[in-house]
Here is the input.
Amino acid sequence: MNANPSPKVNWPRVIGRAILHTVVITVAIIWLLPSMGVFVNTFRPKQAVGSTGWWTILVTPFDFTQYSLENVINVLAGNPEYVETCRENEEIIAAADSGACDELSNSRDRRTCEQVAAGERVLRRCDLLTDLLSSDGMARAFLNSLSITVPSTIIPILVAAFAAYAFAWMEFPGRQVLFVVVVGLLVVPLQMTLIPVQRMFNVLGLTNNPNFPFLAIWLAHTGYGLPFAIYLLRNFFGALPRELFESAYLDGASKWTAFWRLALPLSVPAVASLAIFQFLWVWNDLLVALIFTSGRYSPVTRHVANLVNSLGQDWQVLPAAATISMILPLVIFFALQRYFIRGILAGSVKG
Amino acid sequence: MQGQRWWVPWLYLAPALLILFAFLVYPTIHTVILSFMDENGEVLVTEHCKSDVCEWGIFHNYWYAFHNPSMQEAFVNNIRWLVFFTSITVFLGLVLAVLFDRVRYEPIVKSAIFLPMAISFVGAGVIWGAQAGVYKWTNPAKPQVGLLNAILVALVPGFEPKNWLRLQPWNNFALIVVGIWMWTGFAMVILSAAIKNIPKEILEAARVDGANEFQIFFRIIIPSISSTLTVVATTMVINVLKIFDIVYVMTGGRGGTDVIANRMYTEMFINFEDGRGSAIAVILLLLIVPVMIANIRSFREQEATR
Here is the structure.
């Protein structure tokens, strides 16, 4: 027995652990910093965002006077100031175009008007800006995103579940071949379909249809989401024990009952992962939204992308807009992390 | 199975098959046809050749796709993305998975790296962009409010702040960094799960036999997760081929940063050159199909070994 109770310090090991912890924590901080910037700037006054870096709050993080909801409110509800400025601008541009600068009442406006007429100065026009920042900017886009995403998640999963059930538990000629064809559609990038689908919607009158503003994009997302959803659910249904279904049929259950009472309830984990994956995919999508939505029916991604391209000197509200567009996915991420990760991993093969 | 009417399965399948046909099968065929047509998609491209001569005859739109300077620039940029984005995400994902496996607060640091996967490319464009993000550039006379320029000004004496998204060819790498930031978490989580699946006894046995950590990494860990590595790498390659939103939001493809998918969008929906856009889409499809097949194949292989 060793009489000495004090253990020897294993220095190489201690140093190794110290380096490991330092590297791991540094990497995690580096990864968080970019998002931190946008998050912090969301809650700072517009003037501060433009003049000092977001990290200046780290000196006195609990000094709450340095925070403000100004940008959030402006971007959600719209700032009358922007709308007013651009209305004045429109007036000046019109006067400059018709050579009537002298008719303007304000002397500063007259000078601006002359500069515009001489081509020395360009004023921002209203059309895009009023639409983006008018009374219901991001708030409307957020509701649009919800109206697009919820049906675009439920419809494909339901349609896919019916098909997957048939592929898993029914017998019909060509079952294997048809399933391979459906899975094969996973390789088709949705870029391949955009023009023909757009033309189809034009023919059906679904483009810019004020009565059904979201029908086109619901259908498009359903189509793009189906191959993957069928593939995933078919594999899950197929793994359920056969005896379960056989005893249910013996007890007189129909296919229909077995689908609703057995297959679906037993597949809750798979359906949850799939639903989260599809929800995030649709919520974060820009390309499909650019083509199948328009104007006041744009979702948050498209709205923020428009803001990026048009705000110019008013860029200080961008972080607030971006945060609003990301808040729901982040809540889902933190609340349902397990399903979230499983969904994303399974979804890696989506086309 | 007990007697069922022959049409019952088709009732369950009908909605899915109808939608798949309308939104994937028919449009794909139509796009292939459009790629041989003129800009309006009405007559064959050979009847309306832009430059009077029809190079490659009916494949004129494909000739355009390979010879137009903007397209050639896009191809070069996609190759840059392919090389750097793919290798760095897979490499970093693997290294982080191994490192994080050794600390007790693994779930927390993993969340930090995986978090950007929840964010849209548009959101990432704002987080990193030249307007309000990390790459923000302001007049050198004023304090820099963009993180990158502020750090460099503070650390490097006499550093002149740079407009990173205009600085060729580095602006491409600035965009690739954003992609890496978003997708490394994906690689890390998948590879981490695969590493944890390696039987502990094998690692123990190797250590008992005197193998050091590097030998264990290269001789045991890498070979055991090779099919998972293929899944991750091929997924990244597919991402690269389809990369669109980051470029669209952050630079709009200006300043020499254009990529194939953004060119396709420009030709289709800004220039309204349906034929050219369709040809680019077909090229994308042809590039993606083999990678996708490799991806699905190793995905199933990896499932089988679980």
Summary: The CA atoms of residues 16 and 22 of chain A lie 10 Å apart. The longest helix of chain A spans residues 137-169. DSSP finds 17 helices and no strands in chain A. Chain A touches chain B through 96 residues (CB under 8 Å).
